[in-house]
Amino acid sequence: RLSQRRTDPVTGERYHTTLRPAPTPEIQARLRQNPKDEQGNIEKRLNIYYSHVKALEDFYQDAFYVNADQDPFVIFEFIESCIIKPLPCK
Fold first, then answer.
1. In a domain, 90, yes or no
2. For residues 52 and 48, what is the distance between their CA atoms, to the nearest angstrom?
3. What total number of domains does the chain contain?
4. How far apart are CA 27 and CA 14, in angstroms?
5. For the region Disordered, what residue ranges are annotated (predicted)?
6. Angle at the Cα of 28 (from 68 to 44), degrees rounded to 5?
7. Is residue 57 part of a domain?
């Protein structure tokens, strides 16, 4: 998903090659990819994340998992319910 992000240098508008493609061939031709979004750089960032995630999980033992692939309102409601009325620990 990250490697398919593009930016229009003229308008600053952001696009995604699959999920939100540029509306015209003219705009599509001038889109640029941020160097951070290149495949090699994404892999480096993920490797750093995976090398630190266990230590973070151990440090933040009271944290809860949020599935962010949902409607923003559902995510908000879930986070709010965890903060206001936490579910019992397993």
1. no
2. 6
3. 1
4. 11
5. 1-25
6. 45
7. yes
Which residue is listed with tokens 């151990």?
58
CB contact at 8 A, 35 and 14: no
Domain enclosing residue 50, as ranges: 5-84
* Amino acid type, 85: K
**Residue whose tokens read 């001038």:** 30
* Domain contains 89: no
Least Cα distance to 56 among 65, 68, 67, 44 occurs for 65
11-54: pLDDT as tens digits: 999 999 999 999 999 999 999 999 999 999 999 999 999 999 99
Residue the block writes with tokens 């003219």: 26
Asked, for residue 46, whether it belongs to a domain, the answer is: yes
